[in-house]
Write a structure and sequence with these properties.
single chain; alpha/beta; two-stranded antiparallel ribbon; 9 strands; 35% helix; 17% strand; globular
């Protein structure tokens, strides 16, 4: 039996290069220990089809590398921390382009759909000291994220949370008058329906050689996994609404899981008269990912917003 391919390298500043150091992870978070055992190749690992094991692994990563205490309600999405960190580091590189090549640290960022896990604000503040406004349509998600913020000293001044009370809105209602942000980040719902999300779960199970009834290993609520029209509809609505906030935000960004959606989104940005559009590729573990970035501001106007 051949060993699985090694994970593709993450961003150079990503702390999660190479294989997991399970002894160090267990020392940082002892509850992980019972879930670690030799895999089919004789190496220490966890069962990645076990939601509890995946949760404990990511709790250990956040504790070991960022000294963060982190918990989730049952049934919510457990984000793979290494891949989420790549988005933050790649975004920092994009923003450095408007800051004379220097990684900016005194920034305000909005996370659309922060979820119960609040992972992007946690990582962005830990790595770069950025201030975050996290938004979500779910009151339960906002409550869970609030508990994470409250459970880590110093985060309450760095991360604020707002519930989006208009289900069809993205920025309206959560960007307040006269507020300005250097960037928006977003990990939009991927699937177009509950049936499509379930089919995706079964494909993932088959790829791992698991039973048909194996649950999606990272869990997730409806608003985390799917929305009508999927990511294409969500990002298209995000683009349309961003026009109204063209001077409030320097860079709008969103992950795009399906590469085939990019031409349609580019055309929509052209129609919206975006001044600049970027596609930033990322290697996240064993898969390729990317985010779409757009700005309505000229390079000179963007650079001005990074001056204090």
């Amino acid at each position: 039996m051949n060993k699985p391919a090694a994970r593709a390298p993450f961003h150079p500043r990503n702390r999660h290069q190479g294989r997991y150091d399970f002894p160090a992870l267990i020392a940082a978070h002892p509850p992980l220990a019972p879930k670690v055992r030799p895999n089919g190749y004789g190496e220490q690992s966890i069962d990645f089809a076990d939601p509890q094991a995946v949760l404990l692994l990511n709790q250990a990563l956040l504790k070991l590398f960022y000294n963060l205490n982190w918990q989730l309600p049952d049934g919510y999405l457990t984000p793979p921390v290494p891949g989420r960190a790549d988005y933050i580091h790649a975004l920092a590189d994009l923003l450095a382009g408007d800051n004379h090549g220097h990684l900016p640290r005194d920034l305000d960022v909005m996370d659309i759909g922060c979820g119960a896990n609040c992972i992007y604000p946690l990582l962005g503040h830990a790595e770069y000291g950025w201030r975050f406004t996290g938004t979500d349509t779910s009151a339960e998600a906002i409550n869970a994220a609030s508990q994470i913020v409250a459970g880590n000293p110093g985060l309450q001044r760095a991360i604020r949370l707002r519930r989006q009370k208009q289900p069809q809105a993205i920025f309206n209602g959560v960007i307040h008058k006269n507020e300005r942000y250097h960037a928006v980040i977003c990990n939009p719902p991927f699937h177009a329906s509950a049936a499509e999300a379930a089919a995706g779960s079964q494909r993932k199970a088959r790829n791992l050689g698991l039973r048909r009834d194996t649950p999606l290993n990272f869990g997730g609520q409806q608003n985390e996994l799917w929305c009508t029209g999927g990511e294409l509809a969500f990002i298209s609505a995000m683009i349309d609404e961003s026009v109204l906030w063209s001077t409030s935000v320097v860079w709008f960004t969103s992950l795009v899981s399906r590469k085939e959606n990019l031409p349609v989104l580019r055309d929509r940005l052209t129609a919206a008269a975006a001044h600049e559009v970027r596609i930033v590729d990322m290697a996240q573990g064993q898969k390729q990912s990317r985010f779409l970035a757009w700005s309505f501001l000229s390079p000179a106007a963007r650079a001005q917003r990074f001056r204090r």
